[in-house]
Amino acid sequence: MKQGVAWMKEHLLIVVFCVTIVAALAGGWFGSVDFNATVRAKAEDQARRFGELATAENGSITISLPGATEPISGKGVINAAVVEQYGRAIGVLSEDAGKIQRAALARNLNGRDPYDPKAPVAPFLPRVNAAKASLLRYDAQAFFAAEYARLLAEVHTGAAPSTDEVMARLEASRLNFINQDLRKPDAASLTPEEKSKLDQKLGSDRIGLLETAALGVSFFCDPADLSIPTATEAKALNPEASQLGAYEQTLFDWQWRFWITEDLLHAFYAANQDGSKELVPELRAPVKQILSIAIEPMRRGGSSSADGNGSENASSGDAAPFGGSTADASSASADASSDSKAQERVALGAPQIDTSTEAARDYSKSFTGRSSNGIYDVRRVTVVFVAETAAIPVVLDALSKENFMTVVNLKLAPADAFAAAAQGFAYGLEPVSTITLELETVWFREWTAFFMPESVRASLGIASGTAAADGSSDGSSGS
């Protein structure tokens, strides 16, 4: 034992190294067990995370944006970056919608302030009581006749020379050619060669007359082809107190039809001008002649005749045409039972339109899915016109730029320029076609309802605020 201790003291360095080696071997074994467990745990954690990433990569998210017909789908997960991008997109959509709304109001109101409580609800409908209303039917017809005349002059329309006018001009030219150019007393004394010259002269003069008329207009449009109220229709109105609601609805529908016609003619005029400040004559313009404009009637409750269903907030059960007379005691057409009741209409408050409500789409009506609802009304129009065939896309583009009009159907047929010339219309040298368009026009209630009489709002299911809340209790606004 002593010898062993003495040997270890003598060889202390060797002993220390041996003990260290033995301890390292034993400690290494125990340490490796713990290390392996740690490495294994980290590896398992990484494998789990890789699995989550793979799941996220193969996963999908669906995001719906306001106004989009279908939601947007894609691979990934909802995270902070996605939420931030969605917020930015919603902000842009909201800003764009606000700009469109303000632009539409500015365009449609044309300087009128609908929030002015002293502005009349319907500018075309004088504010009178029922006793004086019988004097208005002729005034209303004269008002619209003057408005349509102003519109037609504004877009530089015109009519072809009448047959009597052409015949008178040609007869004067015929006599002048026989007496002055040929120096003959009458047509009976002309030789066959001279008769041929006379025929050529009259043909050339006739074409010249038609072309001269065409050079002074943007396109041909006969007022008889528009829905201009006639004196006969005005006389048929019944403005008595018991029928004052239907009377107001008819007059407002006349106004609405004028707005639609105004938009259409402005669009055709814009297509012909194509940015030019000088009048582009019909001979060189895309649109040649308007043959007819047919506006489908509005149905009570807010739907057009093609809709079948009314607006969501409209009264149900009344499918009579807008502006027609019915005997329904609950309808707005019979709510003016006395002169004092008619006077109460003057204090009509502002319409209550909730612009935050989403307008539902119904694609059974048309590919746009639009139909009248609590936000806007859809009025459908069929317009038939003659246009240069190669320039039809220009015309369609001009229509799409005018006040939310959408072409939903188009029919095309060759037009006979020679037959038109026989009727007094000169279309120029380019091939022309007769186009039948079905259009949807959209009318936002946020501005139209401000000009509606009470009975019109009631028929469309539009609620009105109190006059006192609108600051109009002084009776200065209303129909």
Describe, in plain words, how this protein is organized in 3D.
The protein is of the alpha/beta class. It has a domain at 125-156 and 216-460. Helices cover 46% and strands 12% of the residues. It contains 14 helices and eight strands. It has helices at residues 2-10, 12-58, 80-109, 130-133, 136-154, 163-181, 192-215, 231-235, 244-273, 339-344, 392-400, 417-422, 445-448, 454-460; strands at residues 60-63, 72-75, 157-158, 219-221, 287-295, 376-388, 405-414, 432-444. The strands form two sheets. Strands 3-4-5-6-8-7 form a six-stranded mixed beta sheet. Strands 1-2 form a two-stranded antiparallel sheet. Strand 1 (60-63) and strand 2 (72-75) form a beta hairpin. Helix 5 packs parallel to helix 9 and helix 6 (163-181) crosses helix 7 (192-215). The longest helix is centred in the N-terminal third of the chain and has 47 residues, at 12-58. It starts with a helix and ends in a 19-residue tail after the last helix.
